[in-house]
Each structure stands twice: as structure tokens, then as C-alpha cells.
Fold:
Amino acid sequence: MRQHLIPQTIIPCLESIAHTLPETTLGCTIFATAYVSESLRPSKLAKYFFPFSKTCLNVSEYKPSVPSSTTDTQPGKDLEARHFNIETAATDSVFKSTISISPEQKVVGLGLFVRQTLFSFCDDTPRVWLDVIMPIEKVTNKLHFKEKIISTGGGAVDAIGLDNAPRVGSMTEALQQKTWKFGKINNNNRHKTGLADLDVRINWTNGAEQWCQRSSFVGVLVPTGTRINGAQAAYLFSPVIGNNHHWGLTFGSLINAHVWAREEHKIRLIYQVYSAILVTNYQIRSLDIKDKQWGRYMEIYKDQKAATLASASGNARSGNSGINTFTKCMKVDPRYISTMSGTFMYEYKNFAAYAGYNLYLRHAEKVDLPEWTEHVALKSVNGVGATTLARSVGKNFPQSDITDPDDYTDAIVPISSLNFDSAAHPGVVSQTLFANIGYNTSFCDKPVFVGLGGSYEFSSANNALERLMGWVILSISL
Structure:
């Protein structure tokens, strides 16, 4: 039911990799990580975007000349075609189709990490240092939208319908109507490239012993990623870079324990916690009506004047698509993000290998609408000024129509009937298993580390990406 998917930030992952590099001494260390990732299990993501937790939806048209199409007992019917400006010309058949999506995301990125020592102990072990993390990404999303037409219903009728636009004859056409400003669905690759939030931190050592070092940090997350504006809200599953353009206060700690050593063999345990408190901002979001999944797409009358005019003219086709009205600039409070990871690292001479586990937590968003001045009402499937309270995106319930336009105020959708949860990203719990191998060498008398690794991210819910990621690391200490 939601419009986009917030990506799990790559910043904690890059920071995890940095702490497994050879221990920094006085000076500056720069490392670059080239990474690629690809999402898995598209059926899970489809259930996130489609109503009723389905991956495939059945569409059928209401047509009075075909009595069987006017009942709400049709098995398997998910969507009423009239909501999407579909009306066909045949008198003995109706439009029917099935639509499906298989969302896929691919990411190619370059993570730049710069660590500069500011103060050190007498043995040149860093005491206070600065970290700057800059992931540059290209995110490509594709819905893999498909429509299988079961019955054309004689093709689109030659008439003007919702939004004063021509009636259409398929969901493929309906979901790309030019009159729709938001919520469109197509089968194109949609991509976005940019800096996925800049993370700047001040770190300090708060405990340094021979076998264990402890450090903490505070920092700021600078929103350089994607703004959720009208362009982003125009299409379902638009690519998003970063954390929806929220400022953030970051903080955390790390324990680096040398748990075992024998001759040149060493094992370290690295445990770290990363948290970010994100700041509220305003974004363009679409929302549904309570108990009406995908209610954002239902046909409406914008006000009483529109319903009265339709009644006076006997025009059953007039009205508007709900998506433009139920998409608003909303106040979004993302609350916080937290990650926890544990890494075992084995070192032998110049060789290093590590494996670990990361837990990613993101609080459910809280969204609010500054004002709701609309006087919209849900349009009856019969039109001609009739409104309804009971109709849904798949059921018509014509027996519940309010047929007199003078009673229009009884059908107005108040702010209390809006489902704000449908516009908010739910809480996320995601887990990652990762591993890396690397080799320490030197170049022009400068310590160099090269390595490669990969990770598998998974979640039991459908609101987080399940994906594979691979990376190559190059680090040099100046």
C-alpha cells in the first residue's frame, strides 16, 4: 500500500568494514569500497506495495448490461475497473484482467571513508579522530509490471471520463494516465544517482589497554540523498538514496578485544553499536482511507458542486481519480535507526579474514497532515451525483448509495477517516551475515590493505529488502 521503500543505509556497513582494517596510527587513512547489491524474493516486496498482501490482483468491470458483473459476490475480484477510468463498449461482456508486479532493486556504489587522527597517545595510538563517510550510489528499481487481459470488453468506450480524460481500455493504460500526478505504475527502469547522506563523526578513545580498546563517537548525518517530492511520488517504487533527506544526530560505541594470540596468529572480537536520531521533515506521500486498502485510487467527487452538476446533467462518467487528492505534503517523523554488530577477525602475518552479524532496527514512521481542507466524497459506481460511504476499491455496495446530492455532506471524507499508517513506512528489523578476506601490504612505503567480501541481508517481514551484496576494498594510510 505504500509508495516507496526506504533502503537500509549502507553507512553502518561501511563503518563496520573500517574497524576491521589494520589499526590506525597517527595520520590519515583513506579507504574506498566498491560494492554492488541485488534484491531477492520479489514476491515479498510485491505484497508490500499491493493491497491485501497479494502479488497478483484481479480486475473486473461493473457494467449494468451484464447483470453478473454488478454483484459484489464475484469470487476473486480485487479491483473495480471503474476506479481506474476503465469503461468498455461491449454490451454483452466486461473488461477483465490480472495485474502483477515483481519489484527488483540493484545498487552500484562507491563508499569513501576518511579517518584523520587529531590527537594521539604517546605511542601514536589515536586518542581523538575524525571520520567522514561518503557513499555514492546508483539505485535502479524496476517493478516488472505485467497485465494479462482475460476479456477486452469490446475496448475502451469513446467517451470522456474521470478527470475529463478519455476512458481507457486496460490497467496498463490506466496506471499511466497523464492526468495522474502521483502513484503511477509502469514497467520502466527507474534510477537515481547521488551521494547517499554524508556522515561526519568525532571519535575518542575512552579505554585503551593492551588487550582491549574502547571508543565512542558523536556525529551528524547530513541529508544529501533523495528528497521525497512530487517527482518521487509520481511513480510507485521510485528509487531512494539515503534516509529520505532527514538530518540526523549519530552516536555509538565500539569495543575491540584481542581475545586470543599465539605466535603470529591472532583473533579479535569487534562489537559496535550505531544509532541515529532523525529529524522531522515534510514529504509528498499518498494515503488511504481507513479500512479501504488502495483507497487512494478510488473515484471521487471533489466537492458538492461537482456531484450536483453530475446529477443535473445525468453524467455518470464525471468525477476524479482519488490519487491526486489523497496525495499530500505530510509531516514525517522517522524517529531513530540503530544497528548492532559483532565481528570475529582472524589475522595471520599479512592475512586477515573476518565474519560477523549485523542487526538493523528502524522505528516505524509517524506521519501527520498539517491540514485537510478537502470536501471530497467517494463516488458511487452508478455516478450521476450519487455518493457512498461503503464502497471500497473492489466492492461497490450500490445499495448503500447516497443518491441525493443535497445529502452530499453526509458522505464527505473527514480527516478522522484517513489512514495515516498507510502513508508511513512501518518499523524494520533486518539481519545481515557478512564475511571478508584481505591482505596487508605496502606501496611507496605506505601501508595498504586490499580485500573483498560479501553479505546476505534478510528479514521475516515484507517491508525490508532481502539482498546479496559484494564489495572490494582498497585502503591506504598516509
Q: What stands out?
A: Helices lie at 11-19, 42-49, 171-174, 230-233, 304-313, 322-325. The longest strand covers residues 104-120. The domain at 11-37+106-140+185-287+326-376+413-477 is CATH 2.40.160.40 (Porin).
